[in-house]
Amino acid sequence: MRGTVIVVFPRDREYELRLTAGDKPLPTAQEGDQWLSQQFEELGCTPRSLVGKVLVLDKVLEVAREAGEKRFAGDIAWAERYARAVLATLNRENVRVDIAENTVG
Known about the structure:
- It is built from three helices and four strands.
- With 105 residues, the protein is of the alpha+beta class.
- The chain has one domain.
- The chain has a four-stranded mixed β-sheet with strand order 2-1-3-4, with helices on one face.
- Helix 1 packs across helix 2 (56-74), helix 1 (29-42) packs across helix 3 (76-90) and helix 2 packs antiparallel against helix 3.
- The longest helix is centred in the middle third of the chain and has 19 residues, at 56-74.
């Protein structure tokens, strides 16, 4: 197994995205970060920092928040790309993105 990303929306709605060893290789960390940055901009996300600096964890959280539950439920290709970018960028096998709690763990 290559990794799992779980995105949790309010009302305990969870989307589990599993990437297996048979899937295509993950992007590099830089490619994953670039994709998240592009989505951050396209979705109109705003930096959480008062100085305007956008941290990687902010990108992961805000892209999921702005994309919304409908996108995770209805656009499987986009959701898988999100999961691949998150796993590559954070260099972790398992990531939980909790929108209501504002956490990435």
